[in-house]
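Encode chain A's predicted structure.
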Amino acid sequence: MTNDLPEERPATRVSVCMASYRGATYIMEQLRSILEQLDSNDEVVIVDDASPDNTVAVIRSIGDPRIRLIQSPINRGYVRSFEAAVEASRGSYIFLSDQDDVWIPGRVADMVAALQTAPVVASNFAMLGGGPRPWIPLLQAGWDVKPFANLLGIMIGYRAYYGCGMAFRREMLPIFTPIPDYVHESHDLWLAICGNLGGGVAHLEKPTLMRRLHDSNETPAGFRSLSKIVTARIMLGRLILESKRRLRRPTAMRRRQDR
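Encoded structure for chain A:
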């Protein structure tokens, strides 16, 4: 007697979610640094935000079956591209990744280990080429048990939560998504808020990636006007309230009790 049922697909452990746009110059190096750390059943989900250059061709040229490429017909911005990638992911552990950095060997293992005790993990990064870091203080392991101080730090602007250095457990997906429609940047701070209110964030002091700064980075750089600072703080306050609301939902409460 033979079993004609199709073999069940092995569970996906890690999903790396990336938004690409005009990334042809650096994305090959980044993807290679990621793929060498993944298992055969892991995946890289890339949402290309209607790149006008040959980014898509570069991604396809790699020819790795672990890469899942989704092409957006219109440009929606990097926050919506990350959201689409996360929602399409299948892994138990969801990593956010920029298109132009380089992952340090051991990053996946270190962050998955940290996710055994916290629903969200954030790590520090080093600068590719040894350039100057942003002025925000480095993450410290002692902050793991200081969620409210972390929230205050987010509001003031001195907690270094960067999406390129973050990952989370799948149970956080219905809290993190959909990303509120008024969020056009700082989806990483939204994830940090959800983590600090929803079970904690593990802070890795050692760098897990090399961050590349260049003229085409999507992350805003430099100092902002007072009006933009005030607008951003109002948005962050709204996000704290929204995270609390989502965490009060019955499904969210059940997930927290089951941990």
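Residues 14-258 form a domain with the Spore Coat Polysaccharide Biosynthesis Protein SpsA; Chain A fold (CATH 3.90.550.10).
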